[in-house]
Amino acid sequence: MLGKWCNRANIGNEGDDLYDYQSERNRPLKYPLEDAMIEKAKVSDVREIQKLINFYAPGGGILPRSLNDLYEQMRDFFIYWEDDIVVGVCALHVSWEDLAEIRSLAVKKEYQGRGIGRQLVIACLKEARRLGISRVFVLTNQPKFFEKVGFKLITRSELPHKIWADCIKCIKFPDCDEIPLLYRI
């Protein structure tokens, strides 16, 4: 079953049944994934999301997020749960009518290398498809990871200037070393 949800060819197929509304914990919008679960974030998840994101922020690999930012953007987030523990997060932020960004991908160190980040990115791509968004970009220092999911390298000039607004919050601003990649749905 895991292959069905992680296989790039299944992103965007007609008839994908992405959501299972049955839940012991009464949590909406579930993606079935063997012994774990990917879900849309709830208000009660925000502090855990912040802890995970801000753990990685000091190194500059991810932008820190305030609680205010996270409450305002909570609907953008997917959470990977395992044994009732948040082990990964990722956001899909809509930038324009046909463009969204993968943001704030973070997985606890002890869970890395198990495909959790990939599953979170794929959940975001499925959400983009559901929303009718045709292009999803990411700015990253890990381009090989995103290329394995199907993203392609692009130049910065291929993205609208509007998307650079959050760069001011980055510790590397204005000397950004992140690489832009794009996924076409």
List the helices and strands and how they pair.
Layout lengths: L1 H5 L23 E4 L2 E5 L5 H11 L10 H7 L3 E6 L2 E12 L2 E9 L8 H16 L3 E6 L2 H7 L2 E2 L25 E6 L1
Number of strands: 8
Category by helix and strand content: alpha+beta
* Count of folded domains: 1
Give the overall shape, derived from the CA principal axes: globular
Number of helical stretches of at least 4 residues: 5
Note poorly predicted spans: 1-33
At CATH level 3, the topology is Aminopeptidase
Helical content class: 10-25%
Mean pLDDT: 80
User: What would you report as the Rg, rounded to the nearest angstrom?
Assistant: 16 Å
Bin the strand percentage.
25-35%
* Adjacency order of strands in the biggest sheet: 1-2-3-4-5-6-8-7
Main β-sheet, in a few words?
8 strands, mixed
Could you name the CATH class? Alpha Beta
Question: Could you characterize what this model shows?
Answer:
The protein has helices spanning 2-6, 46-56, 67-73, 116-131, 143-149, and strands at residues 30-33, 36-40, 77-82, 85-96, 99-107, 135-140, 152-153, 179-184. The model is unreliable at 1-33 (pLDDT under 50). It is an alpha+beta fold. A hairpin with a 2-residue loop joins strand 1 and strand 2 (36-40). The two termini are 22 Å apart. The longest helix has 16 residues, at 116-131. It has a single domain, classed as Aminopeptidase. Strands 1-2-3-4-5-6-8-7 form an eight-stranded mixed β-sheet. It contains five helices and eight strands.
Describe what is shown at a glance.
The chain has helices at residues 2-6, 46-56, 67-73, 116-131, 143-149, and strands spanning 30-33, 36-40, 77-82, 85-96, 99-107, 135-140, 152-153, 179-184. By secondary structure, it is α+β, with helices and mostly antiparallel strands. The chain has a single domain, classed as Aminopeptidase.
